[in-house]
Amino acid sequence: MRRTAPLVVTFVVGVIMVGEYFIPHYRYRMITAELIEWGLVLAAAAFVLGLINLVQVNLPKVIRREQDWAYKLVMLIALVCTITAGALGGKDRLGDGQIYKWIFDFLFTPLNATMFSLLAFYIASAAFRAFRARNVDAALLLGAAVVVMIARVPIGESIPVIGDYLPKIMNWIMDVPNIAARRAIFIGAALGAVATGLRVILGIERSHLGSDG
């Protein structure tokens, strides 16, 4: 019963939500809107469960002083401080002078920017490995990347003869092959999402229920 009930609920709710795209009646839209509200409530509960799980996993490691326990301690302290500041600030927590807003603006935002700046080095390393002209496809990728990068900087326009044509070539690469490849990726991802959704609705995909054992 513990497995049958979730599968039945998933099937019923999934069919109802899919029907929203085919049944334009306003009463039907009221039902789907109510289900979406329930989903938001469940999502909020999932955040709470994630918070509890985060503490349960990391707090024992801090107490036992396992590897990297100091980083986990900093994370837990930041978690407590942020939640406390948000709770004390109430609905005005994002206003000027509030501790919660100060934490967000002067701690979280700089740390977030630092993380993304470090990712730039990983992207550069990945690009260096991907742009090796081992075959025709890699050579085309390398050539397009070189043209786009040179056309993006002011020095590209000062190159004799081809300097005036580089921006036009770059725009064609970004507007035609690039957009076509992105649309193909989006279509593939959408088909994959539809297939996964159908597998979940029909009960074929059961990984979200845990191990069968």
Topology:
Layout (H helix, E strand, L loop, with lengths): L3 H16 L6 H38 L5 H21 L9 H32 L5 H17 L1 H4 L8 H10 L1 H25 L12
Report on this model:
With 213 residues, this protein is mainly α. It has a domain at 1-66. Helix content is 77%, strand content 0%. The longest helix is centred in the first third of the chain and has 38 residues, at 26-63. It is extended, with a radius of gyration of 26 Å.
Query: What is the residue-mean pLDDT, rounded to a whole number?
Result: 87
Biggest beta-sheet profile: none
Cα radius of gyration in angstroms: 26 Å
Euclidean distance between termini CA atoms:
15 Å
Features of this protein?
mainly alpha; 213 residues; 8 helices; 77% helix
In brief:
Helices cover 77% and strands 0% of the residues. α5 crosses α7 and α7 runs parallel beside α8.
